[in-house]
């Protein structure tokens, strides 16, 4: 009888320890190699965002280009975040024509394989804006692959950790 009570108390404490901890969403770290094409012009500004199935902005994952005065050239992203908003992601310097940059961002596991996509926009000062430089379905397979750009980007290669 005492053994059954002791086992019941032990099981209760173990269950309580699982339920008393706050739920922590698992985040994946995604490394990303961004390679630009050789084009005429200044360095490229690039916004990498999470979008839902309908293409609605959810979150900024990374911004390449550190001069905020040029952010409005990334029209869709800039409109989505609002001109008075602080950028909610890490940002780095522009990437010049023919150059490459390695970046990393975190994304919650709950978005992967659930219909979300990674939207990549690019713009170059006094040149064309590419709203849909890339839209990559956010799948486990795509987070470990290379994707060709349609504008200033030669490709983007993801490696998930």
Keyphrases for this structure?
2 helices; DUF2271; alpha+beta; 9 strands
Secondary-structure blueprint:
Blueprint: H1 2-20, E1 27-36, E2 44-51, E3 57-64, H2 75-81, E4 91-92, E5 100-108, E6 117-124, E7 129-137, E8 146-148, E9 153-160
Parallel strand pairs: 3-4
Antiparallel strand pairs: 1-5, 1-9, 2-3, 2-6, 6-7, 8-9
Pfam families: DUF2271 (PF10029)
What does this structure look like?
InterPro entries: DUF2271. The structure is a single chain. This protein is an alpha+beta fold. The chain has a single domain, classed as Immunoglobulin-like. Helices cover 16% and strands 40% of the residues. It has 2 helices and 9 strands. It has helices spanning 2-20, 75-81; strands at 27-36, 44-51, 57-64, 91-92, 100-108, 117-124, 129-137, 146-148, 153-160. The strands form 2 sheets. It has a 5-stranded mixed sheet with strand order 4-3-2-6-7, covered by helices on one side. It starts with a helix and ends with a strand. The mean pLDDT is 86.
Helix percentage range:
10-25%
Strand order of the largest sheet: 4-3-2-6-7
What is the fold-level CATH name, i.e. the topology? Immunoglobulin-like
What's the total count of β strands?
9
Fraction in beta strands: 35-45%
Q: Assign the structural class, choosing from mainly alpha, mainly beta, alpha/beta, alpha+beta, or little secondary structure.
A: alpha+beta
| Known CATH architecture | Sandwich
CATH class identity: Mainly Beta
Please, how many helices?
A: 2
Mean pLDDT: 86
Rg, Cα atoms, Å: 21 Å
The total tally of domains equals: 1
The residue ranges in which pLDDT falls below 50 over 5 or more consecutive positions are: none
Which descriptor suits the 3D outline? globular
Distance between the termini: 49 Å
The profile of the biggest β sheet is: 5 strands, mixed
């Amino acid at each position: 009888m005492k053994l059954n009570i002791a086992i019941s108390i032990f099981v209760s404490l173990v269950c309580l320890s699982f339920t008393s901890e706050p739920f922590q969403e698992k985040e994946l770290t995604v490394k990303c190699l961004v390679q630009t094409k050789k084009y005429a012009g200044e360095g490229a500004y690039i916004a990498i965002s999470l979008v839902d199935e309908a293409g609605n902005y959810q979150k900024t994952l990374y911004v390449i280009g550190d001069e905020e005065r040029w952010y409005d050239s990334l029209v869709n992203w800039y409109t989505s975040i609002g001109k008075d908003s602080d950028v909610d992601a890490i940002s780095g310097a522009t990437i010049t024509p023919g150059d490459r940059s390695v970046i990393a961002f975190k994304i919650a596991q709950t978005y992967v394989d659930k219909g979300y996509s990674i939207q990549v926009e690019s713009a170059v000062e006094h040149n064309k804006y590419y709203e849909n430089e890339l839209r990559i379905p956010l799948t486990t397979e795509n987070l470990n692959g290379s994707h060709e750009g349609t504008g200033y980007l030669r490709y983007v290669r993801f490696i998930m950790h």
